[in-house]
Amino acid sequence: MRKLRKIQVAIVLLSVCLTVSTARSSTVSNFSVNATVVASCISSATSITFDYQGQASGTGPQNGVGNISITCKRSLAYHVDISNGKNATGQLAVTRLMTDGLSYVRYNLYTSRACDRVWGSGMRGGISIASEGTGAAQAVGVYARIPATSVAGGGVLSDISQPIEDKVEDSVVVVVMF
User: Fold this and answer.
1) Is the pLDDT of residue 159 over 50?
2) 131-134 CB contacts, 8 Å cutoff, 24+ apart
3) What is the mean pLDDT of residues 52-80?
4) Nearest CA to 79 among 109, 124, 120?
5) pTM assigned to the model
6) How far is it, in rounded angstroms, from Cα 105 to Cα 158?
7) C-alpha–C-alpha distance, residues 166 and 173, integer Å
8) Beta-carbon neighbour count of residue 176 at 10 Å?
9) Over the stretch 69-99, which tens digit does the pLDDT of each residue have?
10) CATH no., domain 41-177
11) Contact 83, 58 (CB under 8 A)
């Protein structure tokens, strides 16, 4: 009888093991995926190049166009400002200056093709522009003008008819505030 009981217990244990190993069940769990999206913008700008040959008094202005590309998160309000450049003088500059180190060429940057609103809050009467992000790149035109009488020699602004023989340049910084 003991032998029979041992066989019965072995069969019961074997069937429990088989049941456990072949049983199929599952459990379901949920979890969240979260991310904090930081309000952000990125920008880039193209250079503005004039084909400047020097201007005598009484000649017309020269215009140039550049572009600022701004990508901001959708619905994010932002302002774009442009610095006075590295050669402007005074706290509220009247004009920007390109230089070759000896002579200067006056120019300015504007918010429209009409060149009627100076761009840059550091310029006398200058403004910044405001917009809202779309999530895609937005092109913003930068309109530049060298006025009709703009060449200066020896660091003093004056009307001269001699062209500058060297490359004149300035560097401005685009600031996107959001």
Assistant:
1) no
2) 131/70, 131/77, 131/78, 131/80, 132/72, 132/75, 132/76, 132/77, 132/78, 133/41, 133/70, 133/71, 133/72, 133/73, 133/74, 133/75, 133/76, 133/77, 133/78, 133/178, 134/72, 134/74
3) 83
4) 120
5) 0.71
6) 10
7) 23
8) 20
9) 999 999 999 999 999 999 887 777 788 998 8
10) 2.60.40.1090
11) no
